[in-house]
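pinned: reference chain
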Amino acid sequence: MTLFKDCVEAVGLVIDGAGVLAIVLGMLIASCRFVITGRNQPDGYRSFRQDLGRGILLGLEFLVAADIIRTVAVTPTLEGVLVLGIIVLIRTFLSATLQVELEGRWPWQQAKEREQKAAAAPS
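pinned: its C-alpha cells
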C-alpha cells in the first residue's frame, strides 16, 4: 500500500508541476507575443490579458486535478476532503471570474448566445 501512495503522490506532484509550468509558459508566451506584435495593435493589451488568462486557467485546471488525486487517493480523511473542497471552491471561483474577464460573459451564457444566433439565422 505504501508503494501505491508513493506513486499517487508522485503523479500528483508531476501534475502540480505541469500546472505551474502551464502558468509560467502561458505568461512567457503571452509576454513574447505582446512584445513582438501586440504593442502595435490597437487591442494588443486586451489580447495580452486574454492570452495570460488562458495560461492561468489551464494551470488552475492542472492544479485542481493534482489536489483531487492526492486527496482522494492518498489521504482520504474528512479533514483532507474538506480542505480539498475549499481549495476547489476557491479555484473554481477564480476560473469563473477569469472566464468572465476573458470572454465578457459567464460560461453558461455561451449556449444561450448560440441558440439566439441559430434562431436569427435565415433558414
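why pinned: The radius of gyration is 19 Å. The mean pLDDT is 82.
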